[in-house]
Design a protein that fits this description.
By secondary structure, this protein is of the alpha/beta class. It has 25 helices and 29 strands. The strands form ten sheets. Strands 9, 10, 11, 12, 13, 14 and 15 form a seven-stranded mixed sheet that branches. Strand 9 and strand 10 form a beta hairpin. The longest helix has 28 residues.
Length: about 850
């Protein structure tokens, strides 16, 4: 054994050493022959492959890995796959910047295409200067770049020590993932759960795609109220409204006020004329109108915000669209603006951006005297796509939706019941789910007008006039999946019929990235390709994720599982918090305040960074704290050094882990205390409280190092006697049992340091060892009281204090000293007296029961012999 303990212990290089060994030995390889009850399956979050990970990923994925390692050591066969979320807008944007290109679906594929830039150069290319390329060329570049990023991600995850079976990986854009997403969608359509509708849609004008309710965020933006003058149709008297969107005046279809607002009772049912355009619109009542906002009466435009959509729908109003997909006002005036006055006014705005149209309409209003005063500046929340840079608009488009309870009370109640059945960690996160489901205002919009994603698997027949018949979609058979309607013809047609009367056309859209990610249990578990595996891992045990995507990833996965399987997709949900920068702001790429993790891992060591992550409870937002990493590194180094010290006492002789050999009271007391730690740590980890488990283990470990090791080291050495005394054998056996237990307790958090020490005196991997139980420890401890160790440690501390105050070495001997000990601690101190005298280097020790704390009195130090200069 001695030859396996290095002369000098270090954390440096342990990541590479043990990652290689784990790969070679298949330490984390999943055994697919195990039964469902033997398996613990994890629906691992697939990180978005769009450049680089940040330290927040390291934080949350460490939480998951602690669970995986704990469950594996408890005897469960852990299904712990890793996926890559490589489709969607983040990847497209990165490809545009990286290669200096943009997608133009009207262009033909060029098999010899070479991108104009690659890497940093491409980031300097303005969007207007990006080279247009075909969709197929663009997708090929997306695939190329994501494959490079995925390898970098895997290298980082391995360095962090994730105990993933790297033979179980998946991509959300792979053939299998696309087939899974399309099969689930086809079944949704067949059951009436997915449908098309032409309706007002939240629209990002930069990406030119629809955006779902779950992808919105409010941002405070400056704006201004403009006081406009409408006129009664009957007598021309003025009606004042205040609006922040005067450019939408040509889209006005009504005015609205609260039905209880006394100011407008005589106006309800009447009509008014719009300023500048002179269009007659009705004045209506609705309970959503705010009496204390502006003048209390508002324009209803199609569409300025989501409230406009509600009013438009519930009041059965006409549509008067003015905004196009590019964020500019349409070239042609909308229906209802047929008069010469209206068309002339609209011509002043046609083709302009929202900003330019606003400036021009203000000029027209001021010229006509129909705007009172100057705009009044305000700051107000404006809706943005979470990844977008410009405010969202609302345009009317044809889109695909999946029912999610937003318009179906029965389905809403069923999904709320699913949330109630799920075990949440922490439990208070449940309310976020309930608030989200209860506040839904519409179904889930799943189609996107983008390029790198899972194609909507639908074609439409064309009538005799060449117009698509959307009411009769053509769906593929499941065995034909995956399909791409933009390049494949449906069954019964050929390519010559594409786009011609009597032929067909493919749906040009792709699915929202969440429509694929919501099926990660089915993709990773082999729903389509490996039904035997799927039956063994689904429904899964755990969904780990960030609390900020409960409304998107968690909820959408519950929806898909409920609709397809009629069950929850997992039993538990573990929600990690955000990582905050020094200003207590969330770290995110969009804010530019992220810390990339590889440098942190290399500087402090993976175990140290994992310690920082595991020190934060689930659900809690946590600061990026280098100081905590330094504490973790100190702990990992102490594990190495203390273990080497403890193992050195036996002089190369194997340490028997024999409970019967433990006979000395202080040894038995230490093991009794450790048995309680095992109970508490196990209960905490079983309840997904890794922080509590680490806390109780670490607290005991430092007591073990600072007190117990110091107390017993002389006895454990045994004075070099050939015959090992009973007392020495007791100390060595206790040290071995404690070290064996502590390494396993620390293993989920400090996998590299614990594996290193384990290899010095055990075969196999600590990560395949069984989780410690208190049974063996209690068998050794008998009826010992853990307070004996506490009392002995307190007594030793009192002796150390004497030397510290005298400013002498801790190795200085004490000729005589009296310990004043509280009555409650007296038995413990007397039981450990031989070890206290040896550790404190005391010749004569008197123990007196007095007082309420342990105090050393009358100490006489032995002076050291003078050294020669």
């Amino acid at each position: 054994m001695t030859s396996r303990i290095p002369d000098k212990v270090t954390l440096d290089g342990l990541e590479d050493k043990w990652n290689s060994a784990w790969t070679e030995n298949g330490t984390y390889r999943f055994d697919a022959t195990k039964t469902r009850t033997q398996i613990y399956s994890i629906d691992t979050p697939p990180p978005t492959v769009s450049g680089s990970l940040h330290v927040g990923h390291v934080f949350s994925y460490t939480h998951t890995d602690v669970v995986a390692r704990f469950q594996r050591m408890r005897g469960r066969e852990v299904f712990y796959p890793m996926g890559w979320d490589d489709n969607g807008l983040p990847t497209e944007r990165r490809v545009q910047n990286f290669y200096g290109v943009r997608c133009d679906p009207t262009l033909h594929y060029d098999p010899a295409f070479v991108p104009p830039f690659e890497g940093a150069e491409g980031k300097s290319v303005r969007a207007a200067d990006q080279q247009p390329i075909s969709r197929q060329n663009f997708v090929e570049l997306c695939v190329r770049l994501t494959e490079e990023d995925e390898q970098q991600f895997e290298n980082l995850w391995r360095h962090l020590g994730l105990s993933v079976d790297w033979s179980h990986t998946y991509q959300t854009i792979s053939d299998d993932a696309r087939a899974v997403a399309q099969q689930a969608f086809v079944r949704n359509v067949a059951r009436g759960e997915a449908y098309q509708a032409e309706a007002p849609t939240l629209w990002d004008v930069t990406f030119r795609t629809a955006v779902a309710q779950a992808e919105l965020e409010d941002r405070e933006r400056p704006g201004a109220y403009h006081r406009l003058v409408f006129s009664r149709t009957s007598d021309g008297s003025p009606i004042h409204i205040e609006t922040t969107r005067p450019e939408l005046l040509p889209a006005c279809v009504a005015l609205v006020a609260h039905p209880d607002d006394e100011r407008y009772q005589d106006l309800f049912g009447q009509t008014v004329r719009t300023p500048v355009f002179g269009v007659e619109v009705p004045v209506l009542a609705h309970h959503l109108a705010s009496q204390d906002k502006g003048s209390g009466i508002a324009m209803i435009c199609t569409f300025g915000d989501l409230t406009d959509v509600i009013w438009w729908r519930e009041l059965s109003l006409p549509t008067r669209p003015v905004l196009g997909w590019d964020g500019r006002l349409l070239d042609e005036a909308p229906p209802g603006l047929e008069s010469a006055q209206a068309t002339a006014a609209y011509a002043e705005l046609a083709g302009k951006t929202v900003f330019s149209a606003r400036e021009r309409i203000i000029e027209l209003l001021q010229a006509s005297g129909e705007m009172e005063g100057d705009p009044r500046p305000i700051t107000h929340p404006v809706k943005f796509y979470e990844r977008g840079d410009r405010p969202l608009e609302i345009v009317t488009t044809r889109q695909w939706y999946i029912r999610n309870g937003g318009r179906d009370t029965e389905l809403r109640d069923a999904l709320l019941a699913r949330g109630a059945d799920l075990q949440w960690h922490p439990d208070y996160m449940r309310i976020r789910y309930e608030n989200w489901v209860g506040g839904l205002t519409g179904d889930w919009l799943v189609s996107r007008q983008r390029f790198f994603g899972v194609p909507i698997p639908v074609w439409y027949p064309l009538d005799d006039a060449g117009e698509p018949v959307h009411e009769a979609p053509i769906l593929p058979s499941e065995d034909a999946l995956p399909v791409d309607p933009s390049s494949q013809a449906p069954t019964g047609y050929d390519e010559s019929q594409r786009g011609v009367a009597g032929g067909f056309i493919g749906d040009p859209d792709v699915m929202d990235t969440w429509a694929t990610s919501s099926l990660t249990p089915q993709i990773a578990g082999g729903w389509r390709t490996n039904p035997d595996l799927f039956a063994r891992v689904f429904p899964m045990d755990l969904r780990p994720q960030g609390h900020d995507i409960i409304r998107t990833w968690l909820f959408s996965t519950v929806v898909r599982s409920h609709l397809e399987h009629g069950i929850l997709p997992w039993k538990h949900a573990a929600l990690s918090g955000w990582i905050l920068d020094p200003d207590r702001k969330k770290m995110s790429k969009s804010k530019g305040n992220v810390v990339t993790p590889m440098g942190v891992l290399e500087q402090h060591g993976s175990d140290a960074v994992r310690y920082w992550a595991a020190s934060a409870r689930l659900g809690a937002d946590t600061a990026f704290e280098v100081g905590q990493m330094k504490i973790g590194r100190r702990l990992a180094i102490k594990v190495l050094n203390a273990s080497k010290f403890a193992l050195s006492f036996a002089g190369g002789v194997p340490i028997p882990l024999d409970p019967a050999a433990v006979t000395v009271p202080v040894d038995r007391a230490m093991l009794a205390a450790l048995a309680d730690v095992v109970d508490r740590a196990t209960a905490a980890l079983a309840d997904y409280d890794h922080t509590r488990a680490l806390e109780v283990t670490e607290t005991f470990f430092w007591t073990f190092c600072d007190d117990y090791l110091e107390l017993v080291k002389d006895r454990a050495y045994g004075g070099g006697d050939a015959v090992v005394s009973t007392e020495t054998a007791s100390a060595r056996a206790a040290l071995g049992l404690a070290l064996d237990t502590l390494l396993r307790l620390f293993a989920p958090v400090l996998p590299f340091a614990t594996e290193e020490v384990w290899s010095w005196w055990h075969s196999g991997s600590v990560h395949r060892a069984s989780w410690p139980t208190p049974d063996q420890l209690r068998a050794a401890a008998g009826d010992a009281d853990p307070a004996v160790l506490t009392a002995a440690g307190t007594a030793l501390a009192a002796l150390r204090k004497v030397k510290s105050e005298a400013k002498v070495s801790m190795r200085t001997e004490i000729a005589r000293v009296e310990l004043l000990v509280p009555e409650a601690a007296l038995a413990g101190v007397r039981a450990a007296e031989p070890d206290i005298r040896a550790a404190g280097r005391v010749h004569a020790l008197t123990i007196t029961a007095v007082g309420d704390e342990v105090v050393a009195r009358g100490a006489q130090l032995v002076e050291s012999a003078p050294t020669n200069a």
